[in-house]
Amino acid sequence: MYRFLLSRQWVILTLVALLLIPTMIRLGIWQMHRYEERTARNQLVADALSAEPVPVEKLTSPGHTVTTGERYHTVSAKGRFDTDREVVVRRRTNSDDEVGYHVLTPFVLDDGKILLVNRGWIPADGPSQTAFPAIPAPPKGEITVSGRLMPAETTAASGIKDLKGLPDRQVMLINSEQEARRLGAEVLGGYIVLTTPAPKGDTPEPLGKPGNENAALNYAYAIQWWLFSAGVPLGWVILVRRERRDRAEAEAAAREELDAADAEPAAV
To answer: What digits encode the pLDDT tens for the residues 3-30?
Structure first.
């Protein structure tokens, strides 16, 4: 009755089904791992953003690599902006995906060390982006700034190529080691995204807070793959039963035709 399962077509179909089941189970497990990773990352970001501000030198120092646990923590520093050595970071977009620059301004601390401050986004000055753009000045004199601590950018982490031969006072990456060499000074590891004081007239455009990664989507994908894996044997059984029924009906019809032919009187 099930002899058809030994046919080439059904052997191949059965092997494919047997391969799909563990594959889909593994894909579901991978999506669940992604869900757990993203959930943990979201919680880490939320904890950092809600933590009490601390002096910047409690979390970073010259040559320090900002860790995942230190990222996004609000830090404060007292000193003054050095706009004479300010640079812009090329090919950065704002919330509307417009291409422009990030404004990177050295902030000289009271002890002479330098904190790199990303003051926000400004539009590009034109297609060539060769001339140094006009940038609104920050507050003068000694002030206190605060912002979200970020790790130094690298090509490996960001995917941004560190192009050479750029126009004067333009860079591709916010990298504290490179800036230490350019400035000839001690530069704290990483940089901060400025939150206070707010710029006058909202320019440079402040950078928004990091958003949550969509962990729920990975959870949904995991459930989806596991449902698919459960559906494969169910679908196989349905196909087998349908094939058995179709074959039985075909055999019954053939027998009826044969019986009808045997019952017909012989022609004289």
So the answer is: 777 888 889 989 999 999 999 999 999 9
